[in-house]
Write a structure and sequence with these properties.
The structure holds 2 protein chains of 2 kinds. Helices cover 81% and strands 0% of the residues of chain A. Chain A is mainly alpha-helical. The longest helix of chain A is centred in the N-terminal third of the chain and has 35 residues. Chain A is elongated, with a radius of gyration of 20 Å. Chain B is built from 12 helices and 10 strands. In chain B, strands 6-7-8-3-9-10 form a 6-stranded mixed sheet, sandwiched between helices. A 4-stranded antiparallel sheet of chain B has the order 2-1-4-5, with helices on one face. The chains are: A mainly alpha, B alpha/beta. Chains A and B meet through helix 7 and helix 8 of A and helix 3 and helix 5 of B.
Protein backbone atom coordinates (compact mmCIF):
# COMPACT_ATOMS: atom_id res chain seq x y z
CA UNK A 1 0.00 0.00 0.00
CA UNK A 2 1.56 3.29 -0.98
CA UNK A 3 1.25 6.52 0.94
CA UNK A 4 -1.36 8.03 -1.38
CA UNK A 5 -3.67 5.08 -0.87
CA UNK A 6 -3.16 5.51 2.82
CA UNK A 7 -4.08 9.19 2.63
CA UNK A 8 -7.18 8.30 0.60
CA UNK A 9 -8.29 5.61 3.00
CA UNK A 10 -7.75 7.66 6.14
CA UNK A 11 -9.04 10.90 4.66
CA UNK A 12 -11.41 11.69 7.48
CA UNK A 13 -8.97 10.90 10.27
CA UNK A 14 -6.26 12.85 8.54
CA UNK A 15 -8.48 15.86 8.03
CA UNK A 16 -9.42 15.84 11.69
CA UNK A 17 -5.80 15.58 12.81
CA UNK A 18 -4.87 18.43 10.48
CA UNK A 19 -7.68 20.61 11.81
CA UNK A 20 -6.60 19.85 15.39
CA UNK A 21 -3.07 20.76 14.43
CA UNK A 22 -4.16 24.05 12.84
CA UNK A 23 -6.28 24.82 15.90
CA UNK A 24 -3.36 24.25 18.30
CA UNK A 25 -0.95 26.31 16.21
CA UNK A 26 -3.49 29.01 15.37
CA UNK A 27 -4.54 29.59 18.96
CA UNK A 28 -0.93 29.60 20.16
CA UNK A 29 0.07 32.11 17.51
CA UNK A 30 -2.84 34.41 18.32
CA UNK A 31 -1.85 34.34 21.97
CA UNK A 32 1.85 34.72 21.21
CA UNK A 33 1.21 37.78 19.00
CA UNK A 34 -1.18 39.27 21.57
CA UNK A 35 1.47 38.89 24.28
CA UNK A 36 4.70 39.13 22.30
CA UNK A 37 4.09 42.34 20.35
CA UNK A 38 3.20 44.40 23.46
CA UNK A 39 6.21 42.91 25.26
CA UNK A 40 8.40 43.85 22.31
CA UNK A 41 7.07 47.41 22.49
CA UNK A 42 7.73 47.53 26.24
CA UNK A 43 11.33 46.46 25.60
CA UNK A 44 11.83 49.52 23.36
CA UNK A 45 10.19 51.86 25.89
CA UNK A 46 11.77 50.55 29.12
CA UNK A 47 15.25 49.28 28.26
CA UNK A 48 15.76 48.05 31.82
CA UNK A 49 13.00 45.49 31.23
CA UNK A 50 14.71 44.19 28.12
CA UNK A 51 16.94 41.72 29.98
CA UNK A 52 14.23 40.08 32.11
CA UNK A 53 11.72 39.90 29.24
CA UNK A 54 14.08 38.61 26.57
CA UNK A 55 15.86 36.43 29.13
CA UNK A 56 12.59 34.86 30.22
CA UNK A 57 11.51 34.17 26.65
CA UNK A 58 14.96 32.75 25.96
CA UNK A 59 14.74 30.33 28.87
CA UNK A 60 11.28 29.16 27.77
CA UNK A 61 12.78 28.47 24.35
CA UNK A 62 15.48 26.19 25.79
CA UNK A 63 13.19 23.87 27.81
CA UNK A 64 12.68 20.61 25.88
CA UNK A 65 9.06 20.45 24.78
CA UNK A 66 8.22 17.13 26.40
CA UNK A 67 9.63 18.39 29.69
CA UNK A 68 7.64 21.61 29.37
CA UNK A 69 4.42 19.63 28.85
CA UNK A 70 5.37 17.66 31.97
CA UNK A 71 6.00 20.81 34.02
CA UNK A 72 2.65 22.31 33.01
CA UNK A 73 0.66 19.14 33.71
CA UNK A 74 0.21 19.72 37.48
CA UNK A 75 -0.82 23.38 36.99
CA UNK A 76 -4.50 23.45 38.07
CA UNK A 77 -6.49 24.95 35.17
CA UNK A 78 -3.98 23.99 32.50
CA UNK A 79 -3.60 20.33 33.39
CA UNK A 80 -7.32 19.70 33.02
CA UNK A 81 -7.30 19.69 29.25
CA UNK A 82 -4.49 18.56 27.00
CA UNK A 83 -5.13 21.20 24.31
CA UNK A 84 -5.01 24.03 26.86
CA UNK A 85 -1.71 22.79 28.12
CA UNK A 86 -0.26 22.42 24.65
CA UNK A 87 -1.46 25.84 23.53
CA UNK A 88 0.20 27.50 26.53
CA UNK A 89 3.44 25.61 25.93
CA UNK A 90 3.47 26.46 22.22
CA UNK A 91 2.75 30.09 23.04
CA UNK A 92 5.81 30.18 25.29
CA UNK A 93 7.96 28.82 22.45
CA UNK A 94 6.59 31.32 19.95
CA UNK A 95 7.22 34.37 22.15
CA UNK A 96 10.94 34.87 21.68
CA UNK A 97 11.06 35.50 17.91
CA UNK A 98 8.00 37.74 18.11
CA UNK A 99 9.28 39.85 21.02
CA UNK A 100 12.74 40.12 19.50
CA UNK A 101 11.54 41.07 16.02
CA UNK A 102 9.06 43.61 17.37
CA UNK A 103 11.75 45.41 19.33
CA UNK A 104 14.38 45.24 16.56
CA UNK A 105 11.79 46.36 14.02
CA UNK A 106 10.96 49.44 16.05
CA UNK A 107 14.53 50.18 17.05
CA UNK A 108 15.81 50.04 13.48
CA UNK A 109 13.52 52.87 12.34
CA UNK A 110 15.55 55.87 11.18
CA UNK A 111 16.01 58.22 14.15
CA UNK A 112 15.21 61.23 11.96
CA UNK A 113 11.74 59.83 11.26
CA UNK A 114 10.96 59.52 14.95
CA UNK A 115 12.45 62.96 15.69
CA UNK A 116 10.36 64.54 12.93
CA UNK A 117 7.25 62.78 14.22
CA UNK A 118 7.78 64.09 17.76
CA UNK A 119 8.82 67.53 16.54
CA UNK A 120 5.65 67.88 14.50
CA UNK A 121 3.50 67.19 17.51
CA UNK A 122 2.44 63.56 17.18
CA UNK A 123 1.55 62.01 20.52
CA UNK A 124 3.41 58.89 21.69
CA UNK A 125 0.36 56.80 20.75
CA UNK A 126 0.15 58.30 17.29
CA UNK A 127 3.86 57.67 16.76
CA UNK A 128 3.44 54.05 17.87
CA UNK A 129 0.41 53.24 15.70
CA UNK A 130 0.93 55.44 12.66
CA UNK A 131 4.71 55.31 12.38
CA UNK A 132 6.55 52.72 14.45
CA UNK A 133 4.27 49.69 14.09
CA UNK A 134 3.61 50.45 10.43
CA UNK A 135 7.31 50.64 9.64
CA UNK A 136 8.20 47.66 11.86
CA UNK A 137 5.40 45.48 10.45
CA UNK A 138 7.51 43.47 7.96
CA UNK A 139 10.06 42.67 10.67
CA UNK A 140 7.32 41.71 13.14
CA UNK A 141 5.71 39.48 10.50
CA UNK A 142 9.06 37.84 9.81
CA UNK A 143 9.17 36.97 13.51
CA UNK A 144 5.63 35.59 13.37
CA UNK A 145 6.68 33.50 10.37
CA UNK A 146 9.63 31.97 12.18
CA UNK A 147 7.47 31.32 15.24
CA UNK A 148 4.71 29.70 13.18
CA UNK A 149 7.01 27.30 11.37
CA UNK A 150 8.65 26.41 14.69
CA UNK A 151 5.26 25.86 16.34
CA UNK A 152 3.88 23.65 13.55
CA UNK A 153 6.83 21.32 14.17
CA UNK A 154 6.66 21.32 17.96
CA UNK A 155 2.89 20.80 17.88
CA UNK A 156 3.44 17.24 16.60
CA UNK A 157 4.63 16.41 20.13
CA UNK A 158 1.21 17.49 21.45
CA UNK A 159 -0.01 13.96 20.70
CA UNK A 160 2.24 12.70 23.50
CA UNK A 161 -0.06 14.32 26.04
CA UNK A 162 -3.22 13.43 24.13
CA UNK A 163 -3.94 16.79 22.49
CA UNK A 164 -4.24 15.21 19.05
CA UNK A 165 -2.91 16.79 15.88
CA UNK A 166 -0.76 15.25 13.18
CA UNK A 167 1.60 13.92 15.84
CA UNK A 168 -0.97 11.16 16.48
CA UNK A 169 0.12 9.40 13.27
CA UNK A 170 3.79 9.91 14.03
CA UNK A 171 3.54 8.46 17.54
CA UNK A 172 1.40 5.56 16.35
CA UNK A 173 3.86 4.91 13.55
CA UNK A 174 6.76 4.94 15.96
CA UNK A 175 5.01 2.51 18.29
CA UNK A 176 4.09 0.15 15.45
CA UNK A 177 7.40 0.67 13.59
CA UNK A 178 5.35 1.71 10.58
CA UNK A 179 7.10 4.26 8.38
CA UNK A 180 3.98 4.95 6.36
CA UNK A 181 2.12 6.03 9.47
CA UNK A 182 5.03 8.27 10.46
CA UNK A 183 5.04 9.85 7.00
CA UNK A 184 1.26 10.24 7.11
CA UNK A 185 1.80 12.63 10.02
CA UNK A 186 5.10 14.14 8.95
CA UNK A 187 4.22 15.03 5.36
CA UNK A 188 1.06 17.03 6.14
CA UNK A 189 2.90 18.71 9.04
CA UNK A 190 5.71 19.77 6.73
CA UNK A 191 3.19 20.90 4.12
CA UNK A 192 1.37 22.91 6.76
CA UNK A 193 4.60 24.62 7.82
CA UNK A 194 5.44 25.47 4.21
CA UNK A 195 1.94 26.76 3.54
CA UNK A 196 1.95 28.98 6.64
CA UNK A 197 5.39 30.25 5.69
CA UNK A 198 4.23 31.03 2.16
CA UNK A 199 1.06 32.85 3.21
CA UNK A 200 2.89 34.93 5.80
CA UNK A 201 5.65 35.78 3.33
CA UNK A 202 3.03 37.11 0.91
CA UNK A 203 1.54 39.22 3.67
CA UNK A 204 4.98 40.43 4.67
CA UNK A 205 5.81 41.50 1.14
CA UNK A 206 2.50 43.33 0.75
CA UNK A 207 3.06 45.26 3.95
CA UNK A 208 6.69 46.13 3.28
CA UNK A 209 6.69 49.88 2.92
CA UNK A 210 8.89 51.62 0.41
CA UNK A 211 12.29 52.22 1.95
CA UNK A 212 14.01 55.54 2.02
CA UNK B 1 4.32 107.91 16.78
CA UNK B 2 3.52 105.57 13.89
CA UNK B 3 7.18 104.70 13.61
CA UNK B 4 7.32 103.92 17.30
CA UNK B 5 4.37 101.55 17.08
CA UNK B 6 5.93 99.87 14.07
CA UNK B 7 9.12 99.43 16.02
CA UNK B 8 7.23 97.95 18.96
CA UNK B 9 5.51 95.46 16.70
CA UNK B 10 8.80 94.68 15.04
CA UNK B 11 10.39 94.02 18.40
CA UNK B 12 7.63 91.87 19.78
CA UNK B 13 9.41 88.92 21.35
CA UNK B 14 8.22 85.55 20.09
CA UNK B 15 10.93 83.38 21.59
CA UNK B 16 12.99 84.30 24.63
CA UNK B 17 15.80 82.36 26.26
CA UNK B 18 16.17 83.51 29.86
CA UNK B 19 19.49 82.24 31.25
CA UNK B 20 18.49 78.87 29.84
CA UNK B 21 20.80 75.90 30.22
CA UNK B 22 20.69 72.23 29.49
CA UNK B 23 22.72 69.45 31.02
CA UNK B 24 22.48 65.73 30.40
CA UNK B 25 21.22 63.44 33.17
CA UNK B 26 24.88 62.47 33.78
CA UNK B 27 25.64 66.10 34.62
CA UNK B 28 27.47 67.01 31.42
CA UNK B 29 26.60 70.58 30.43
CA UNK B 30 25.54 71.09 26.81
CA UNK B 31 24.20 74.64 26.90
CA UNK B 32 25.03 77.31 29.49
CA UNK B 33 23.27 80.45 30.55
CA UNK B 34 21.76 81.35 27.19
CA UNK B 35 19.83 84.60 27.02
CA UNK B 36 18.52 85.88 23.72
CA UNK B 37 15.32 87.10 22.14
CA UNK B 38 13.87 86.31 18.75
CA UNK B 39 11.43 88.95 17.51
CA UNK B 40 8.39 88.43 15.32
CA UNK B 41 9.25 88.03 11.67
CA UNK B 42 12.99 87.84 12.07
CA UNK B 43 15.32 85.02 11.13
CA UNK B 44 17.91 84.22 13.73
CA UNK B 45 20.77 81.95 12.77
CA UNK B 46 22.46 79.87 15.46
CA UNK B 47 25.95 79.45 14.08
CA UNK B 48 28.70 77.29 15.53
CA UNK B 49 30.68 74.08 15.27
CA UNK B 50 29.23 70.64 15.84
CA UNK B 51 28.65 70.18 19.54
CA UNK B 52 28.32 73.91 20.22
CA UNK B 53 24.79 73.37 21.52
CA UNK B 54 22.88 74.79 18.53
CA UNK B 55 20.53 71.84 18.09
CA UNK B 56 19.99 71.61 21.84
CA UNK B 57 18.96 75.27 21.90
CA UNK B 58 16.52 74.59 19.07
CA UNK B 59 15.01 71.59 20.84
CA UNK B 60 14.39 73.72 23.92
CA UNK B 61 12.04 75.87 21.83
CA UNK B 62 9.63 73.08 20.79
CA UNK B 63 10.03 71.15 24.03
CA UNK B 64 11.83 68.20 22.55
CA UNK B 65 13.97 69.04 25.58
CA UNK B 66 13.16 70.97 28.74
CA UNK B 67 15.78 73.39 30.09
CA UNK B 68 17.54 72.21 33.24
CA UNK B 69 18.35 75.84 34.15
CA UNK B 70 16.47 79.07 33.46
CA UNK B 71 13.58 79.02 31.05
CA UNK B 72 12.53 79.48 27.46
CA UNK B 73 9.43 81.53 26.64
CA UNK B 74 7.40 81.05 23.49
CA UNK B 75 4.87 83.84 22.98
CA UNK B 76 5.53 85.01 26.54
CA UNK B 77 4.73 81.64 28.10
CA UNK B 78 7.40 79.29 29.49
CA UNK B 79 7.65 76.18 27.32
CA UNK B 80 7.16 74.05 30.43
CA UNK B 81 3.67 75.48 30.89
CA UNK B 82 2.78 74.83 27.25
CA UNK B 83 1.23 71.49 26.37
CA UNK B 84 4.13 69.92 24.45
CA UNK B 85 1.89 68.61 21.66
CA UNK B 86 0.06 71.94 21.19
CA UNK B 87 3.38 73.80 21.24
CA UNK B 88 4.92 71.56 18.58
CA UNK B 89 1.89 71.84 16.29
CA UNK B 90 2.23 75.61 16.64
CA UNK B 91 5.83 75.45 15.41
CA UNK B 92 7.09 74.15 12.06
CA UNK B 93 10.12 71.89 12.25
CA UNK B 94 12.58 71.05 9.48
CA UNK B 95 15.58 68.80 10.05
CA UNK B 96 18.62 67.94 7.97
CA UNK B 97 17.71 64.31 7.30
CA UNK B 98 14.19 65.59 6.52
CA UNK B 99 12.61 62.64 8.36
CA UNK B 100 9.83 62.12 5.82
CA UNK B 101 7.75 59.06 6.62
CA UNK B 102 8.85 56.42 4.10
CA UNK B 103 5.48 54.63 4.20
CA UNK B 104 3.49 57.80 3.48
CA UNK B 105 3.02 59.42 0.08
CA UNK B 106 4.17 63.00 -0.39
CA UNK B 107 0.58 64.19 0.06
CA UNK B 108 0.20 62.19 3.29
CA UNK B 109 3.54 63.48 4.56
CA UNK B 110 2.65 67.12 3.96
CA UNK B 111 -0.89 66.78 5.32
CA UNK B 112 0.21 65.11 8.56
CA UNK B 113 -0.35 68.02 10.94
CA UNK B 114 -3.64 69.13 9.28
CA UNK B 115 -4.86 65.53 9.60
CA UNK B 116 -3.76 65.36 13.24
CA UNK B 117 -5.65 68.60 13.74
CA UNK B 118 -8.68 67.04 11.99
CA UNK B 119 -9.04 69.55 9.20
CA UNK B 120 -11.80 68.68 6.70
CA UNK B 121 -10.38 66.56 3.84
CA UNK B 122 -11.12 69.16 1.21
CA UNK B 123 -9.34 71.97 3.02
CA UNK B 124 -6.38 69.67 3.64
CA UNK B 125 -6.05 68.80 -0.02
CA UNK B 126 -6.30 72.42 -1.10
CA UNK B 127 -3.58 73.23 1.40
CA UNK B 128 -1.30 70.47 0.09
CA UNK B 129 -1.72 71.80 -3.45
CA UNK B 130 -0.93 75.29 -2.25
CA UNK B 131 2.18 74.13 -0.40
CA UNK B 132 3.56 72.01 -3.23
CA UNK B 133 3.06 75.03 -5.45
CA UNK B 134 4.89 77.17 -2.89
CA UNK B 135 7.95 74.92 -2.92
CA UNK B 136 7.74 74.59 -6.70
CA UNK B 137 6.73 70.94 -7.01
CA UNK B 138 3.94 69.80 -9.33
CA UNK B 139 0.99 68.37 -7.37
CA UNK B 140 -0.14 65.92 -10.06
CA UNK B 141 3.38 64.63 -10.47
CA UNK B 142 4.42 64.33 -6.82
CA UNK B 143 1.37 63.94 -4.57
CA UNK B 144 1.17 60.16 -4.87
CA UNK B 145 4.87 59.39 -4.90
CA UNK B 146 6.80 58.04 -1.94
CA UNK B 147 9.81 59.83 -0.46
CA UNK B 148 12.34 57.32 -1.85
CA UNK B 149 11.26 58.25 -5.39
CA UNK B 150 12.43 61.85 -4.90
CA UNK B 151 15.85 63.47 -5.11
CA UNK B 152 17.45 64.94 -1.98
CA UNK B 153 16.52 68.47 -2.99
CA UNK B 154 12.92 67.51 -3.72
CA UNK B 155 12.68 65.72 -0.39
CA UNK B 156 13.90 68.80 1.43
CA UNK B 157 11.29 70.90 -0.40
CA UNK B 158 8.64 68.46 0.82
CA UNK B 159 10.12 68.74 4.32
CA UNK B 160 9.68 72.52 4.21
CA UNK B 161 6.15 72.21 2.81
CA UNK B 162 5.29 69.77 5.59
CA UNK B 163 6.61 72.12 8.26
CA UNK B 164 4.48 74.95 6.84
CA UNK B 165 1.33 72.83 6.52
CA UNK B 166 -0.71 74.20 9.40
CA UNK B 167 0.68 77.72 8.79
CA UNK B 168 2.64 77.93 12.06
CA UNK B 169 3.92 81.39 13.00
CA UNK B 170 7.29 79.97 14.02
CA UNK B 171 9.65 77.79 12.01
CA UNK B 172 12.62 75.88 13.42
CA UNK B 173 15.18 74.65 10.94
CA UNK B 174 18.06 72.38 11.88
CA UNK B 175 20.65 72.49 9.08
CA UNK B 176 17.83 72.25 6.56
CA UNK B 177 20.10 72.32 3.53
CA UNK B 178 23.12 70.58 5.09
CA UNK B 179 22.72 67.21 3.38
CA UNK B 180 22.36 68.62 -0.14
CA UNK B 181 24.98 68.99 -2.85
CA UNK B 182 26.33 72.57 -3.11
CA UNK B 183 24.41 73.51 -6.26
CA UNK B 184 21.05 72.25 -5.02
CA UNK B 185 21.78 73.84 -1.67
CA UNK B 186 22.47 77.22 -3.28
CA UNK B 187 19.26 77.05 -5.31
CA UNK B 188 17.16 76.11 -2.33
CA UNK B 189 18.73 78.78 -0.13
CA UNK B 190 17.88 81.46 -2.67
CA UNK B 191 14.36 80.15 -3.11
CA UNK B 192 13.90 79.94 0.61
CA UNK B 193 15.02 83.55 0.96
CA UNK B 194 12.16 84.61 -1.33
CA UNK B 195 9.72 82.37 0.51
CA UNK B 196 10.78 83.88 3.80
CA UNK B 197 10.11 87.42 2.58
CA UNK B 198 6.68 86.35 1.38
CA UNK B 199 5.65 84.46 4.51
CA UNK B 200 7.15 86.61 7.26
CA UNK B 201 7.57 83.71 9.69
CA UNK B 202 9.70 83.92 12.79
CA UNK B 203 12.54 81.55 12.03
CA UNK B 204 15.36 80.03 14.05
CA UNK B 205 17.93 78.43 11.81
CA UNK B 206 20.70 76.15 13.04
CA UNK B 207 23.65 76.06 10.68
CA UNK B 208 27.41 75.85 10.42
CA UNK B 209 27.35 77.49 7.01
CA UNK B 210 28.41 81.15 7.18
CA UNK B 211 27.13 81.87 3.67
CA UNK B 212 23.73 80.53 4.60
CA UNK B 213 23.64 82.67 7.75
CA UNK B 214 24.62 85.81 5.87
CA UNK B 215 22.05 85.15 3.14
CA UNK B 216 19.06 84.18 5.26
CA UNK B 217 19.48 85.58 8.76
CA UNK B 218 18.63 89.02 10.07
CA UNK B 219 20.84 88.27 13.08
CA UNK B 220 23.54 85.71 13.71
CA UNK B 221 24.07 84.23 17.19
CA UNK B 222 27.49 82.64 17.53
CA UNK B 223 27.71 79.66 19.88
CA UNK B 224 30.87 78.06 21.15
CA UNK B 225 31.04 75.13 23.54
CA UNK B 226 27.52 75.70 24.77
CA UNK B 227 27.96 79.44 25.32
CA UNK B 228 26.72 82.41 23.35
CA UNK B 229 29.75 84.46 22.34
CA UNK B 230 27.94 87.23 20.46
CA UNK B 231 24.97 88.33 18.36
CA UNK B 232 25.60 90.19 15.13
CA UNK B 233 23.75 91.56 12.15
CA UNK B 234 25.22 90.14 8.94
CA UNK B 235 27.07 93.41 8.34
CA UNK B 236 28.50 93.41 11.87
CA UNK B 237 29.45 89.77 11.61
CA UNK B 238 31.67 90.44 8.59
CA UNK B 239 33.81 92.87 10.62
CA UNK B 240 33.48 91.28 14.07
CA UNK B 241 36.54 91.25 16.32
CA UNK B 242 35.63 87.93 17.99
CA UNK B 243 38.33 85.44 16.88
CA UNK B 244 35.79 82.72 16.10
CA UNK B 245 33.63 85.08 14.02
CA UNK B 246 36.74 86.36 12.27
CA UNK B 247 37.82 82.79 11.53
CA UNK B 248 34.42 82.01 10.03
CA UNK B 249 34.54 85.16 7.92
CA UNK B 250 38.12 84.47 6.77
CA UNK B 251 37.10 80.98 5.73
CA UNK B 252 34.06 82.33 3.91
CA UNK B 253 36.13 84.99 2.11
CA UNK B 254 38.58 82.36 0.96
CA UNK B 255 35.84 80.69 -1.09
CA UNK B 256 34.49 84.00 -2.26
CA UNK B 257 37.89 85.11 -3.51
CA UNK B 258 38.52 81.81 -5.21
CA UNK B 259 35.18 82.23 -6.94
CA UNK B 260 36.00 85.75 -8.04
CA UNK B 261 39.43 84.69 -9.29
CA UNK B 262 37.75 82.05 -11.41
CA UNK B 263 35.23 84.49 -12.81
CA UNK B 264 37.87 87.06 -13.86
CA UNK B 265 40.99 85.21 -14.81
Amino acid sequence: MNILDFFARHQRELLQATLEHVWLVGMSMLLAVAIGVPLGIIVTRQPWLSKPILGGANIAETIPSLALFGFLLPVPWLGERADRLVIVALTLYALLPIIRNTSTGIESINAAVRQAARGMGMTENQILWQVELRLAMPTILAGVRVATVLTVGIATIAAAVGAGGLGEFIFRGLAMVNNQLILAGAIPAAALALLADFILSLLERRLRPARQ
Amino acid sequence: MKAEIDRDIAREAVIEFLTAGYRLPNGQGILHNLSLTVSRGETLALLGRSGAGKTTALKLINRLLDPTDGEVLVENKPTTSWNAIALRRHIGYVIQEVGLFPHFTIEQNISLVPRLERWPAERTQTRVKELLDLVDLDFDKFANRHPHELSGGQRQRVGIARALAADPPILLMDEPFGALDPLTRGDLQKEFQKLQQRLGKTIVLVTHDVGESLLLASRIALLEEGKLTGIYSPAEFLVAKDPMAAAYVANFRMYEEAERANEHP
